[in-house]
Design brief:
single chain; alpha+beta; six-stranded mixed sheet; five-stranded antiparallel sheet; 8 helices; 18% helix; disordered N terminus
Length: 472
């Protein structure tokens, strides 16, 4: 097994865990370095808090290894790891004042009173609470309580501080100021901070590195600039900030076709005439006169946002979002230009979710022109074609042949919505059933991390016989 590098303080190797037969972390690998502020970012249910709890020793993985300073610590209890945790609910002791809350861990270690006083005083100064030593916890604001919780976590001199959405209970203005304070505290103390959040702005504001998670896997790791400017796939692009995510075709190196127009880009190595996803950030679209634009569209909405106008522009059937210091009249035509560097190309998910079923026919009705087959333990009836019982068929369903059964009765009953990405014309939805993943197109927004019934429109499917019934 490859060992962690010299400056790696925590290393997760092939971590796998599931609860109640649901995979929570699917063989993830992650190295966290000394004196680094790392944010684990992702939607609810992606596995980020479980990752934090595994590092803290509150949860043991089903398989895989946790290294701390190069030493394997699987099975080591939380109190034996030099790690402290700050939770969203700070769990401060209401009957103790600020000083005693911070001193609590030091008193458990039975340190001399003079040393406790020195350490607590120093830590309260770092978190800007000097003079609050005798203040009751109930008399503190939310931000002050949070700083007490951080001071209590830091005063025992842990190598790593784990922070599980500690700003979630604060109001917006206080949350923004605490983002900067947290980063300043981390830099003053030189500790490794591992921070969990679903808030993209928090991640981009505070972090040295961001770890983007989705459905138990790590989608991308990088600096905030890397994650924002060079997303690896449509999920990351959609989750980190606002983005126009479009279907495109890579004509050749540095040449992509979107919305019927060929544009110059800087990406290479995708091959010729390859379907791709294209990301253009709203602030990277320049407004021009229609005759000077690479693309031309009609302004549908324009909203002043303080530092820029946010405009919705229809380019054919596709909606584009633009952030610009210039406005345009609703109903007017505008040109749009994007420099090659600001056109980001990504591999499509589509080739990996091709909606192909291979099955054996278990029944047929020639009068109704239907046949039956088994799919993941359920009997599915396909209409429009008839095959003899025992025939093996390959059924290919395009994304628009899938839909959610509103009446609750579908061909598959409990399918998990893994991600929803808006593509200007429609949402591309990835769903997961027991044995595979599916790609669906929809004009409506669907809720991620919910279970839904899935229906197939076999009139849009293609069929291929791949095996004849056995004779005799």
């Amino acid at each position: 097994m490859k060992q962690p590098t010299e400056n790696t303080i925590i290393s997760l190797k092939d971590i796998f865990i599931k609860f109640d037969d649901e995979v929570i972390l699917n063989h993830i690998n992650l190295d966290i370095h000394d004196n680094e502020f790392v944010t684990i970012l992702g939607p609810s249910g992606c596995g980020k808090t479980t990752t934090l709890r595994i590092i803290g020793g509150f949860v043991e993985p089903d398989s895989g290894d946790v290294f701390f300073g190069g030493r394997r610590i699987n099975g080591t209890p939380p109190n034996k790891r030099n790690v402290n945790t700050v939770f969203q609910k700070y769990s401060l002791f209401p009957h103790l004042n600020v000083f005693e809350n911070v001193a609590f861990g030091l008193r458990l270690k039975k340190l001399p009173k003079a040393e406790i006083k020195e350490k607590v005083t120093q830590m309260l100064a770092i978190v800007d609470l000097k003079g609050y030593e005798k203040r009751s916890i109930s008399k503190l604001s939310g931000g002050q309580q949070q700083r007490v919780a951080i001071a209590r976590a830091l005063v025992c001199n842990p190598d790593v501080v784990l922070l599980d959405e500690p700003l979630g209970a604060l109001d917006l203005k206080l949350r923004k100021s605490m983002q900067l304070e947290l980063k300043e505290i981390q830099q003053k103390t030189g500790k490794t901070f591992i921070y969990v959040t679903h808030d993209q702005e928090e991640a981009l504001t505070m972090s040295d590195r961001v770890v983007v998670m989705n459905n138990g896997v790590i989608e991308q790791t990088g600096t905030p600039e890397d994650i924002y400017n060079e997303p690896v796939n449509a999920f990351v692009a959609d989750f980190i900030g606002e983005a126009n995510i479009l279907n495109g075709t890579m004509i050749d190196d540095c040449r992509v076709k979107i919305l019927g127009k060929e544009l110059e880009c800087v990406d290479r190595g995708f091959g010729k005439n390859t379907p791709v996803d294209v990301v253009i950030r709203p602030e990277d679209i320049e407004i021009t006169a229609p005759e000077n634009g690479q693309l031309v569209g009609t302004v549908q909405k324009s909203t002043f946002k303080g530092v820029h106008y946010e405009m919705s522009v229809m380019c054919g059937r596709c909606e584009l979002l633009i952030h610009s210091t210039r406005s345009a009249e609703i109903g007017s035509q505008i040109g749009m230009c994007v420099i090659p560097f600001n056109i980001q190309i990504m591999n499509k998910l589509l080739p990996f979710y091709n909606n192909v079923i291979e099955a054996e026919v278990t029944g047929c009705d020639r009068d109704k022109k239907t046949f039956d087959f088994e799919l993941e333990g359920e009997t599915v009836t396909a209409s429009g074609r008839v095959f003899d019982v025992g025939t093996r068929v390959k059924i290919t369903l395009p994304p628009d042949a899938l839909s959610l059964a509103g009446d609750g009765v579908g061909d598959l009953k409990d399918v998990y919505i893994e991600s929803v990405v808006y593509k200007g014309e429609h949402n591309e939805i990835i769903l997961e059933s027991d044995e595979r993943k599916w790609l669906m197109l929809s004009d409506t927004d669907e809720q991620v991390a919910t279970y839904v019934p899935l229906a197939f429109d076999f009139s849009k499917a293609s069929f291929e016989v791949i095996g004849k019934p056995e004779e005799g």
